[in-house]
């Protein structure tokens, strides 16, 4: 400890004597350590932090699919009857719960507002191992069709909407016009990303078509493994139960497969490769930082050769010199970490705030990113590692030099070839790493450009989108048509007519869900004259729309006709399909005039396909267009309508007018999430997964290039300084300035070319790890690699020009006199 304290005091004095050098090193380290700590904070919150549930490693996401899915986060849903059979039959699962979600109009006495509510089975929270912080959990009986209407609030919603009222339990609010009693408030740390951390939770009521149809798969399920059970045992048992259901209900379950994965995988989803890519990228920045600081310390250690010689002469061993230099580097690393922690806290805020709110709702765990014990432990580990990494090279170099070698080098005003080779190696490593980051940023930018540049099949320019939720209490089903609401159809017609008459409005349409936001479901169907075995029917997406949808979205009609207001509940059923549907199911036939029948109900009549429209992308821009059946809202009413209003100018100018029309028709209906269609497309998950890493990796690459070029500049500048006498002699003997310029540039270009070559080889292997994030470009894209390499070489030449021009201006008389 005495030696350590002596080393620390000496190191501190040595750093104080050279404040400019110390400040440059601390700032450089702070940027590298701070960036790594910020990214790790986000990675820990998303991937490493245990889920806020009891024994989260025992929780599984379960589902059914018509395709056998393995190692995927795209889980299928289960039908409610199948879920009940799972509950009765499974022995390896202690509990199975289901969840879904729906929009509700909440009225608390003030202005009604639309909210998303998680709909769950009554055992949902107990399966997760979560108990309300206030009040109680759901109980059996509250899921019955005629059971009491109750709700549990999230902590954040309780605080924002009810001012953390401690007497909130038993307060009555209205959800879609029906009274609901608040029975509890969830813990503050509760989040459930697959349900977008809903602000309100209500039980699923066992009534209606959606809980009785075995072929309707909408329920997302989770299970807790029984004590002693393993995941393999659960999979084996559930596959057996699924096979039994397939035999018992061949029409509904004959083609289904059971799929499962850890709930943690379901929570993280597609964010995992994104975060791991960012962590790798920022790790490269830290390596460049260490190499850059090591170069600075090497330069400084060369200037301290006399000091090392004197200390060695006085009896200091190589180990003493090594420990002294390592102590200095660790002290610098500690100062850099202190400043880096402040940068990290600021950086985490920027990282989270840069995520669109729509995406953040599906990743609520990122709100918890910040400084905590694991992050501080990471900071300590990275501080120690960084101090050793950049301090080891100069420490070993200095400690290995003998007393006589140091004096010889001092006498001739030079430095050892070992020092030069080591500094050159560090610069080459910086350039190689910078190239890998530049290539990564280039690939992400090309992916983003390809994604945004593709034709989505519709025109998103000047289109306002908003939704309207029609409560069943105000717009009930009609007696003559039990599954449809005539009043909801009439509302749509009148609302559309009034909005279309507003100044600046060109056209109006509505659907169950706008592109890039979901809303379409899937449905099985039979083609007339093409019988298939039970359970083997064709299946594709279905999207109910109003008559103005295609014109409002400018989706082209390929053949046939669109449906019109003449296609009503009293006329034969019709449908419009997209081009992908025609190619998939009728590749060599005329599709217009064909008839199909949905198989969810044996009484469902045949529908005639009256038209074909162009393909559109939906949900994710990076997915190929899929077959879609469009059905008219007038032949099967929607109670949640997503309107699309095409305007002459900026659609934001029509929001208040549309809200006024809605309020004039029904004051209890809020206008839900008005925004432009372009904004929705730009905030889609697929765009986020390319734009977010593009900016971050691009920033890391810019920082890496700056550090690498500073290192290269320092290397060439020091070389010029050390060879000033040689350059003076060359000029005196008749060397031309062009020759001196070429000699200096040759050294820099040689180092940059070696670094670029190594970076290309490394990049070809490392960029394959980010293949899942790329769209429209291959990991080994030659254009990107060539562009990054050329850019780096040009910047390297620019970094070498300043010391090269200084070498050209060397006066031989002054050079020889000073030497």
What does this structure look like?
The protein is 50% helix and 17% strand. The chain is built from 26 helices and 22 strands. A six-stranded mixed barrel has the order 3-4-9-6-8-7. A six-stranded mixed beta barrel has the order 14-15-20-17-19-18. Strands 13-21-12-22 form a four-stranded antiparallel beta sheet.
Task: Explain briefly what this protein structure is.
This protein has 819 residues and is α+β, with helices and mostly antiparallel strands.
Question: How far apart are the first and last residues' alpha carbons, in Å?
Answer: 44 Å
Note the main sheet. 6 strands, mixed, barrel
The structural class is: alpha+beta
Outline the low-pLDDT stretches. Answer: 68-73, 410-414
Overall mean pLDDT score? Answer: 83
Radius of gyration: 34 Å
- Total number of strands: 22
Shape: elongated
Q: In order across it, which strands form the biggest sheet?
A: 3-4-9-6-8-7
Can you count the helices?
Answer: 26
Percent of residues in beta strands?
Answer: 15-25%
How much helicity do the residues have?
40-55%
List keywords for this structure.
26 helices; six-stranded mixed beta barrel; alpha+beta; six-stranded mixed β-barrel; 819 residues
Tell me the layout of helices and strands.
Layout: H1 2-17, H2 19-48, E1 59-65, E2 78-79, H3 80-89, E3 93-107, E4 113-120, H4 124-128, E5 134-135, E6 150-153, H5 155-162, E7 172-175, E8 178-185, E9 200-203, H6 209-212, E10 217-225, H7 231-248, H8 250-253, E11 257-262, H9 263-268, H10 271-303, H11 305-313, H12 318-353, H13 357-360, H14 373-400, H15 403-411, H16 417-453, E12 463-469, H17 486-500, E13 505-511, E14 521-527, E15 538-545, H18 549-553, E16 557-560, E17 574-578, H19 579-585, E18 595-598, E19 607-613, E20 628-632, E21 640-647, H20 655-665, E22 672-676, H21 677-682, H22 685-722, H23 724-732, H24 737-766, H25 782-808, H26 812-818
Parallel strand pairs: 4-9, 6-8, 15-20, 17-19
Antiparallel strand pairs: 1-10, 1-11, 2-10, 3-4, 3-7, 3-10, 5-8, 6-9, 7-8, 12-21, 12-22, 13-21, 14-15, 14-18, 16-19, 17-20, 18-19
Helix pairs in contact: 1-12, 2-10, 2-12, 2-14, 10-14, 10-16, 10-22, 11-15, 12-14, 16-22, 16-24, 16-25, 17-20, 22-24, 22-25, 23-26, 24-25
């Amino acid at each position: 400890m005495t030696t350590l304290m002596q080393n620390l005091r000496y190191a501190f004095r040595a750093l104080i004597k050279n404040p400019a050098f110390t400040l440059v090193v601390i700032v450089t380290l702070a940027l590298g350590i701070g960036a790594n700590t910020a990214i790790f904070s986000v990675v820990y919150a998303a991937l490493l932090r245990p889920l806020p549930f009891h024994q989260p490693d025992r929780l599984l996401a379960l589902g059914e699919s018509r395709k056998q899915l393995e190692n995927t986060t795209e889980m299928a849903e289960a039908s409610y009857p199948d879920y009940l059979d799972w509950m009765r039959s499974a022995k390896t699962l202690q509990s199975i719960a289901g969840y879904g979600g729906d929009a509700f109009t909440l009225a608390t006495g003030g202005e009604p507002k639309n909210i998303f509510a998680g709909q769950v089975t009554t055992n949902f929270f107990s399966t997760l191992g979560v108990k309300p912080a206030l009040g109680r959990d759901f109980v059996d009986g509250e899921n019955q069709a005629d059971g009491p209407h109750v709700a549990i609030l999230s902590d954040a919603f309780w605080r924002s909407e009810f001012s953390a009222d401690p007497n909130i339990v038993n307060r009555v609010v209205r959800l879609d016009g029906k009274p609901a009693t608040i029975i509890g408030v969830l813990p503050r740390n509760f989040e459930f990303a697959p349900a977008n951390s809903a602000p309100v939770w209500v039980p699923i009521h066992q009534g209606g078509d959606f809980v009785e149809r075995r072929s309707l798969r909408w329920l997302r399920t989770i299970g807790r493994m029984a004590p002693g059970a393993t995941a393999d045992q659960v999979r084996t048992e559930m596959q057996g139960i699924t096979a039994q259901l397939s035999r018992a209900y061949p029409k509904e379950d004959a083609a289904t497969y059971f799929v499962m994965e850890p709930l943690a995988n379901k929570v993280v989803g597609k964010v995992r490769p994104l975060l791991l890519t960012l962590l790798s990228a920022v790790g490269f920045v830290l390596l460049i930082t260490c190499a850059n600081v090591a170069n600075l310390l090497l330069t400084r250690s060369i200037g301290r050769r006399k000091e090392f010689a004197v200390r060695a002469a006085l009896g200091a061993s190589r180990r003493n010199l090594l420990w002294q230099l390592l102590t200095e580097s660790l002290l610098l690393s500690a100062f850099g970490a202190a400043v880096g922690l402040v940068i990290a806290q600021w950086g985490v805020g920027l990282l989270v705030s840069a995520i669109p709110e729509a995406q953040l709702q599906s990743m609520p765990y990122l709100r918890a990113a910040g400084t905590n014990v694991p992050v501080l432990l990471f900071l300590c580990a990275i501080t120690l590692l960084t101090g050793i990494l950049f301090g080891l090279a100069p420490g070993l170099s200095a400690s290995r030099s003998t007393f006589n070698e140091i004096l010889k080098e001092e006498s001739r005003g030079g430095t050892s070839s070992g020092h030069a080779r080591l500094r050159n190696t560090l610069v080459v490593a910086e350039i190689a790493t910078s190239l890998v980051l530049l290539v990564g940023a280039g690939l992400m930018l090309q992916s983003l450009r390809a994604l945004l540049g593709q034709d989505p099949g519709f025109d998103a320019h000047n289109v306002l989108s908003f939704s309207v939720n029609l409560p069943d209490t105000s717009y009930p089903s009609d007696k003559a048509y039990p599954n449809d609401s005539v009043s909801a159809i009439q509302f749509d017609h009148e609302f559309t007519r009034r909005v279309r008459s507003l100044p600046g409005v060109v056209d109006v349409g509505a659907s169950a869900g706008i592109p890039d936001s979901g809303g379409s479901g899937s449905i099985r169907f039979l083609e007339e004259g093409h019988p298939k075995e039970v359970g083997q029917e064709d299946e594709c997406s279905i999207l109910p729309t109003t008559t103005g949808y295609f014109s409002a979205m400018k989706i082209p009609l390929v053949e046939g006709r669109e449906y019109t207001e003449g296609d009503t509940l009293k006329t034969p059923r019709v449908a419009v399909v997209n081009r992908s549907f025609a190619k998939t199911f009728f590749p060599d036939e005329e599709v217009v005039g064909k008839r199909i029948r949905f198989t969810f109900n044996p009484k469902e009549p045949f529908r005639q396909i009256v038209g074909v429209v162009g393909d559109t992308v939906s949900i994710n821009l990076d997915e190929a267009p899929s077959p879609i059946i469009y059905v008219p809202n007038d032949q099967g009413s929607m109670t949640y309508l997503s309107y699309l209003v095409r305007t002459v100018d900026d659609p934001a100018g029509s929001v208040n007018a549309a809200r006024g029309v809605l309020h004039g028709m029904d004051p209890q209906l809020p206008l839900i999430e008005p925004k432009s269609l372009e904004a929705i497309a730009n905030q889609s998950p697929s765009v986020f997964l390319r734009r977010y890493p593009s900016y971050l990796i691009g920033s890391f690459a810019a920082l890496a290039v700056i550090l690498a070029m500073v290192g290269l500049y320092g290397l060439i500048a020091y070389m010029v300084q050390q060879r000033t006498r040689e350059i003076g002699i060359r000029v005196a003997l008749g060397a031309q300035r062009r020759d001196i310029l070429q000699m200096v540039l040759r050294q820099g270009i040689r180092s940059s070319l070696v670094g670029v070559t190594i970076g290309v080889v490394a990049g070809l292997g490392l960029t394959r790890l980010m293949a899942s994030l790329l769209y429209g470009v291959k990991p080994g894209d030659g254009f990107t690699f060539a562009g990054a390499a050329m850019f780096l070489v040009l910047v390297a030449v620019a970094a070498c020009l300043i010391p090269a021009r200084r070498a050209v201006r060397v006066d031989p008389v002054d050079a020889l006199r000073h030497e």
